[in-house]
Amino acid sequence: ALPISNFYGSTEMMDVTYESFSSAQEVMAVLRKDQVPIGVPVDNTSAYLLDDNMEPVGEGGLGSLYITGSNLGDGYVGAKQGSFMVNHIYTGHSGGKDTAEIPNNHGVLYKTGDYATISGGRLYYEGRLDAQIKVRGHRVDLAEVDKAVAEVEGVARCCLLCYRPGQDQQKVLCYYTVAPGVLLPESLLQQRLATSLPCYMMPRITKRSEEHTSELQS
Prior knowledge:
Elements: E1 4-10, E2 14-21, H1 24-30, E3 40-41, E4 45-50, E5 62-69, E6 84-86, H2 88-93, E7 108-119, E8 122-128, E9 132-135, E10 138-141, H3 142-150, E11 155-163, E12 171-178, H4 186-193, E13 204-207, H5 210-217
Parallel strand pairs: 12-13
Antiparallel strand pairs: 1-2, 2-3, 4-5, 5-7, 6-7, 7-8, 9-10, 11-12
């Protein structure tokens, strides 16, 4: 049978890690809490799980995923420029060499904004540090969707959630309430959002009472 591969990637570096399978049995053997691993780094790439002190996280621990490699971009300007930094781990393994001497851009480290764990030598994706998710290959910031919903006339409060992030059943859910005396059914809110959001950012909308929304946000 031809193998099938699960690739994890970043806009800043394209493919980062992979895991290949030749049978359903191979998939079942590495499932962990119904999660398929994102695997191990591709050639000329390194991935690190680090804690809040920028120290490596061991087997089974939850950490922030940092990447480096030949295909990593040069960096950002503006608010996100701090996501690119000197790769202190690589230089430490190289006897403290200056990053300019390190080939293939491994002297630069990028903070992906993703959480991951290591189990059996494989990486497992665990979610985002911020409100960004991937929907059908598109990067979606839930804060932007929240803003679009809140700006619709008649919406009193809203709450955006990502159901089963990173999995096949992933859905963006929106719960909202309306101001007193306002009639804003789910179908009408969806029509109004369609004028400001692309189709891949459209959430599944559910109208709630004020009491239920307060429970969600607490």
